[in-house]
Amino acid sequence: MQDDERSRPSPAQPDDRSRDDSRPAQSERRRFRRETTPTDEQPAPPPALQPLRFSTRDLEPAQQFAAWQSYVAPLVDVRRPDNSPPDAGFGAEHAAWNLGGMLIIQQSTPAHSYSRSEAKVRSSPIDHWHISVLRNGRTWTEVGGHVSEGEPGKVELRTLGHPFRGRSTDAKTLSLYLPRELLHPASTEIRNNIALSGTRAKLLIDYLDGVEAKLAQLAEADLPHVVQTIRDMILTSVSSSPASAEPHNSLALKERVYRFVQHNLMSPDLTTDRLCRELGVSRTRLYQAFEPDGGVHHYIQRRRLLAAHAALSDTANRQQIVDIAFAAGFSSAAHFSRAFSKEFGYSPREARNVAMPSYLGHPVEPVSEAESAQSFDKWLRTLGHLRRA
């Protein structure tokens, strides 16, 4: 009986044991504190872009097509379908977003035909790459006898530096305009007027869908990353496309010449003989390829003038005009001024005075048809050379 009483715990022992067991639990609770939601979160950066919008829908039906013709004139000449009445409406919409190194265009148009003539190519400083994705509708575009067919699910790629012509059904399109330099790494050959398809093209379209949905929310810090990602995805799609491996023709030769000339603009011996030697092409073939451009010498001079025009249009470039001329490969300021005025129809000083202001977006304000067309034209001319102050 006494042994039983000795082995039985006293009434206080369970309480002590319970108290001892609770201490580690309390310690654990103190070690893992409850997360609190901060009340001083940083606000999201403000959106960097505002679109430049143009629409014919608010005009009288008889005026709509002429307004659209004027708006797209810096790029292409357009015509109605042959069976379309001349006073029929032409409800078209265009929204341009300027990312600094790239333009993104949302466009909706009725059926029409379009062309970029040899004369327009020669008279225009615009020779960017144009990438288009159809949301609906179909297009047929011919360059040098080759027709590329556009439809949803494909990515079309062509340069504005060569003539083309085509036609479109009623269509909604997402387009990109990229400076040629952006798609010209030395190791990549890009054929003109090709339609990309397959898995990588689909991934590019999916990414463009996401960018389009977020255009109004993009911050300034996002823009270089978006441009770089799109550029890399385009090059990946091109490198995986069978069209990029087809035999060279005169257009492909021009692309090779373009890259070589662009990398050697300041070289004093940038001559026909050097081009033939470096590119492994005969003088006859080179002359034939550049005969529509007024010859090889004129082509080289035009590339130098385009480089100078881009520098003059860059509001961050504080160089003297004569220094820009020398940097573009001209040995005489007087010769540069005469050639520039003949090529573009205005002087180098005028080109600098009308350069675009250093913003990426454009205020959404009512503007006249002429003002809208002029602003879009400026965006195209200065693409890749806009910088914020």
UniProtKB/TrEMBL annotation:
Name listed for the protein in its UniProt record: Transcriptional activator NphR
KW DNA-binding (keyword) present: yes
Sequence ranges of Basic and acidic residues compositional bias: 1-37
Organism, as annotated: Rhizobium tibeticum
UniProt xrefs under InterPro entries: AraC_XylS_family_regulators, Homeodomain-like_sf, HTH_AraC, HTH_AraC-typ_CS, Tscrpt_reg_AraC-type_HTH
Superkingdom of this protein's organism: Bacteria
UniProt-listed SMART domains: HTH_ARAC (SM00342)
Segments forming domain HTH araC/xylS-type: 255-354
The gene coding this protein: nphR_2
